[in-house]
């Protein structure tokens, strides 16, 4: 089968011909129809999980998010059957049996569930990690209808989902953008206000529009100093999350804010919640870029350099 893999940590992703995996007890074999690209995918080949406790195997097939059809079920599997349309996070131990491949083996008890009915496999593959991250951050901000939330990094995958989920909950979303096209897209996704961060410092622009402060912050782009500066915008008692692990608990406590460094808790229950929102028409899946396996190495370079808008999906 064709797959994108590396032969060592920090290796260059390469299109390889590899054996199709054999189904094992408790696992399913998925004929992958599409895989979603996330920054975590290249962080994984850089060794972010190489802690001496997590097993890896090489060649290490990349990819966490995927969607496809169950090709075969292993002994003891009860939740799925051949022909089921599924999606989710394919990541499991050993690291290296990922979704950037024509076939993938996934444990039944991993983050896998039935795919939403109203969207295509390529759209479903864009959902799992970004969608769950957005859903859980919005939930944990504990905001009320009418509250104001600033989403810094709104035009990316997580930001696009977070904007829609927040708007569906009745929150007033301030979305950061870099150009007029981005502003138009974010308004279509439900943003009430867009701010072009290239025109003037973000905090200054937010203060000018919301001098009374905002209720919540989701920040996916700022460094430590930038995040702490943005905390000054949040009202006492509000919430703030960063996905870049730059939060200082003391800085949050000083302003009586909850939140901090955010880590997604994946699983079928969260995926099923997203599926319901998608099937109810409350979330549009923002697939901006559709590529083939041979295009993945260049797409990974673009992701590393922060040059990607929206979600990129690999179509098998």
TrEMBL record:
Coiled coil: none
TM helices/strands, residue ranges: none
Domain Enoyl reductase (ER): 11-314
Keywords, ordered alphabetically: NADP
Protein origin, superkingdom: Bacteria
PANTHER family listed in its UniProt record: QUINONE OXIDOREDUCTASE
Protein name: NADPH:quinone reductase
